[in-house]
Each structure stands twice: as structure tokens, then as C-alpha cells.
Amino acid sequence: MALSRLIARPLLASYFLANGAQDLKDAPALAAQAAPVTEAVAPVLDSATPEGLPVPRDPVLWVRASGAVQVVAGLALATGHLPRLSSALLGATLVPSTAARYRFWEATDKDQRREQLTHFLKNTALAGGLLIAALDTAGRPGVAWRARHATHDARREAALVGARVRARVH
């Protein structure tokens, strides 16, 4: 593993470990901020999940679930276990939490608006880092590359077999 990954992954994960622990600890207090987002997301999830699978509506549960995912995925990323999946999961928790906590567009006080915008942009930067980490194949070919090359190899083999068959027929 490259030294940069060895250092960068724990650094990136550190925010999510601290934030996830805080979410678990302060879930009831954070639920008021999360409520507008959970109210908007729950109907979308209802239509995307199989019938009979209930989607929770309780914002406290959503905050706790997000906190738990951040702690577990943060630990996985920090230790290099499933770094692409853990980065993607962290990114998935970052979007709704940012929309819930840092609604700078609603702030009326200039200083509050600036502070909210700063946190919003910090989370945007974290999302960029997570995207890089989620797409990082650590120098190994990714699934898309393997699929393209497997298709190319299969076509080449088929052409060779076809040429051999044609040569024997003639």
C-alpha cells in the first residue's frame, strides 16, 4: 500500500469517526435538524423499496443509523478494510447530514450564514475526498477495465476460432 493511502485514509476517516460518535451521543438533539430531510427522503425510499418493507420515519433513528454507519465505515476506511465501499457509504451519509445541518441558504444572520456556508463547503470537500477514495483502485484494474478487456479478449478468441474453423473447411 502506498504511504499516501496509509496516511490519507485514517485522516479522512477521522472526521467521520468523531462525527458518527457525536451523532450517536446527541441523536435526540440533532433529530430536529434532521426531520426536514427525513420527511423528504422517506417517501422516496418508500417508492424504491419492496412493498411491505417499512421505511422508518423517526428522525432520531435516522441520526443514530447515520452515526453508526459513520463509525463502522470510518473504522473500515481508517484500517484499509473495504476502502472503496466504506468511502461510498460515508459519502452516502454525508449528503443528507450536510443538507440537514448546514442550511446556509436559510440563515438570516450574516455571521451564522458565513459559518453555515463554511461547514457546507467543508463537507463538499470531504465528499470530493470520499469520491476519490471510492474510485481508487490502488493501481489495480477496476471492474470496468476488466469487463472491457474481457470483452476484447473474448472477441479476439472468437475471431481466432472462426479463422481456424474456416481454414479447416476450405
UniProtKB/TrEMBL annotation:
Entry-linked Pfam families: DoxX
InterPro entries for this protein: DoxX, DoxX-like_oxidoreductase
Keyword Transmembrane assigned: yes
Swiss-Prot/TrEMBL keywords: Cell membrane, Membrane, Transmembrane, Transmembrane helix
Signal sequence coordinates: none
Topology in the lipid bilayer: Multi-pass membrane protein
Origin: domain of life: Bacteria
Annotated PANTHER family: INNER MEMBRANE PROTEIN YPHA-RELATED, OXIDOREDUCTASE CATD-RELATED
Similarity-based family: Belongs to the DoxX family.
UniProt name for this protein: DoxX family protein
